[in-house]
Design brief:
Helix content: 40-55%
CATH superfamily of the largest domain: Type I PLP-dependent aspartate aminotransferase-like (Major domain)
Number of helices: 12
Structural class: alpha/beta
Strand order of the largest sheet: 1-7-6-5-4-2-3
Order of helices and strands: HHHEHEHEHEHEHEEHEEHEHEEH
Length: about 400
């Protein structure tokens, strides 16, 4: 820290210089991120309401009420207007919170188990949850469509199992696990079922309203106990804005921490963080109000149109294929002819940032990815593939 402060102009000048080296969503070359440029309305709101702190909601009662309305709107989107919940920092905090609630509810039933069955495709946040909560993850195999194998889940259930996790929009390929089948198992065994829809939560409901058949994953499935959803992904809210939705308010109250010393008065919540941004909650509320169902359908439809352009383009390049047909705006690239790590390296040298997995690359077609970006990417991808094939 400087002994004497630096003039504002010099601070801003240094920031401008340094941050210009970061990648920019507007370039269209960020193809591996599940985040995007926040909606212009959200950007205005965040700067205006930065001081709102939902860690002490008694001081900001209307901000707290707005959060309740956000939860109600999200609950309605997922088939349960009576759902409870809270806006959190992101999917990681939401998933950790869900695992803590699952553990606590199991203990109230007199069970001392600590095993949670998750798909091999589960997000790394579940590994973090297991580490923090002293749980053991039991990872179930995937089927040929990269969804969790229900028979393998069934075979892994034991007296130590406390919860099952399904994913609605996997990080890798955007596949949706058979949540209804997992629900049958959870109801039969009286187990907690959590659905990680951090990404899919702002895509799947709108695809369904577009007339596309999607697997049911939400509270319309009786066994679902909780759902993770991230407004800061396809919801286009500012970072950080995640969400944890619970089937009913009793689950919320039974697992809440009581904080009595706050200036605004006693407060109860079930999550990890104390201080929380009210501004991102207000921005999420504004987007849900402003865009509505129709607005989000338009966003998803445009992303899917670009997704199909990229999918077709990949399939037309000799030596490449897509591991699965995309249900959502996520496309994989695999190959039996060239090394995927080398392909990723060459793409990065050209300025393209994709997601890399052991056997494939992954493209997430967020709202900042336009047709012109897809066309340019496919052109450069084909050139790179030809070069790599010739080298062999």
């Amino acid at each position: 820290m400087e002994e004497k402060g630096v003039e504002v102009e010099k601070v801003l000048e240094e920031l401008e210089s340094r941050l210009s080296l970061d990648m920019d969503y507007r370039s269209g070359r960020i193809l591996g991120s599940m985040c995007t440029i926040p909606h212009p309305l959200a950007r205005k709101i965040v700067s205006k309401y930065l001081e709102k702190n939902l860690g002490d909601p008694g001081l900001f009662p209307q901000t707290f009420q707005i959060e309740r309305e956000v939860i109600k709107m999200l609950g309605s989107l997922f088939g349960n207007p009576e759902a409870s919940g809270i806006i959190v920092s992101g999917g990681t905090e939401a998933n950790i919170t869900a695992m803590r609630i699952a553990r606590n509810m199991s203990r109230r039933l007199g069970r001392n188990g600590r095993e949670v069955i998750v798909p091999e495709s589960a997000h790394a946040s579940f590994d973090k949850a297991a580490d923090i909560l002293d749980l053991k993850l039991v990872k179930a195999k995937l089927d040929e469509e990269y969804r969790v194998n229900v028979d393998d889940v069934q075979s892994k259930i034991s007296k130590n199992t406390i919860a099952i996790v399904g994913v609605a929009g996997t990080t890798a390929l955007g596949t949706v696990d058979p949540i209804e089948a997992l629900s049958d198992i959870s109801e039969d065994k009286n187990l907690y079922l959590h659905v990680d829809a951090a990404f899919g939560g702002f895509v799947l409901p709108f695809l369904e309203r577009m007339g596309i058949e999607i697997p049911r994953f939400d509270f319309r499935v009786e066994g679902v106990s909780s759902i993770t959803v991230d407004p800061h992904k396809m919801g286009m809210a500012p970072i950080p804005a995640g969400g944890i939705l619970l089937r009913d308010v009793k689950m919320f109250k039974d697992n809440s921490f009581e904080i009595p010393y706050l200036a605004g008065g006693k407060y109860e919540h079930p999550i990890i963080l104390g201080t929380r941004s009210g501004a991102t909650v207000i921005a999420t509320w504004a987007l849900l109000k402003h865009l509505g169902i129709e607005g989000y359908i338009k966003i998803v439809r445009k992303c899917m149109q670009v997704t199909h352009i990229i999918e077709r383009g990949i399939e037309e390049i000799e030596g490449l294929r897509t591991p699965v047909k995309p249900l959502m705006n996520i496309v994989g690239i695999s190959s039996e002819m060239i090394d995927i790590c080398q392909l990723d390296l060459e793409l990065r040298r050209k300025g393209w940032a994709l997601g890399k997995f052991p056997t494939f690359l992954r493209i997430v077609v967020m709202p900042h990815v336009k047709r012109k970006h897809a066309t340019q990417f496919l052109k450069e991808l084909q050139e790179i593939v030809r070069k790599l094939v010739c080298k062999k």
